[in-house]
Hints:
The protein has 179 residues and is mainly α. The protein has eight helices and no strands. Helix 4 (76-92) runs antiparallel to helix 7, helix 4 packs across helix 8 (169-175) and helix 5 (100-116) packs across helix 6. The site of flavin-adenine dinucleotide (FAD) has 21 residues, from helix 4, helix 6, helix 7 and helix 8.
Amino acid sequence: PEQKAQVGEEDKTPKQLPKGVVLGPDGKPCRSCTSVSSWFAMAKQGTANPSKIATTTPPAQATASLDMPADCPPDVEQLGRSAWTLLHTMAASYPEKASPEQQRETTTFMQLFGKMYPCWVCADDFRAWMKDGNEPRVSSRQDFGQWMCEAHNAVNVKLGKKSFDCRKWEERWRTGWKD
Ligand code: FAD
């Protein structure tokens, strides 16, 4: 006879989840890999652990407009915007000419970042991109900022977004726009 799921047991079947919901390595929906709209669709459908959803579902008002309350765990987009802000700002404050030690540390940081980034599908692709002839260029601020811009553009292209003009990375992230 067919085994019935126990009460409280999670259904890990991906096909029952709304489009865009990404599972984590533990088989549970991965919040930082999933957009807020897919997450809310899942919450509405009740396709994941209801107790988890109950703690993360925003008030009805916020759900309607898909506005995420500021004190909720980040979705893939919010996490991405915050991460790029950190990364580009690191490039903006990087030395004009980096010492060998700074270069080593920065390369190590980017490699670890590619391992530890909480959206695991994003991290896998990012590591693959770095491995595919795009190792971090860290000799100077210009080099690092340009490389970061190219890294961000690789994700923009993957997501079907417009590429950013990398000649302007410094205006966007360091000096502010020229009048
Ligand atoms: P963002 O792309 O977050 O950009 C923020 C701001 O940066 C923009 O408003 C613009 O002013 C500026 N900007 C844009 N492009 C550049 C550039 N090339 N150089 C300098 N500045 C720029 N999301 C997914 O859904 N799938 C993924 O696989 C994925 N992979 C990611 C990998 C990494 C390493 C990171 C950090 C994020 C990833 N994301 C991924 C998140 C994604 O890149 C965006 O952050 C998210 O979709 C929100 O996009 P956004 O349009 O608000 O602006």
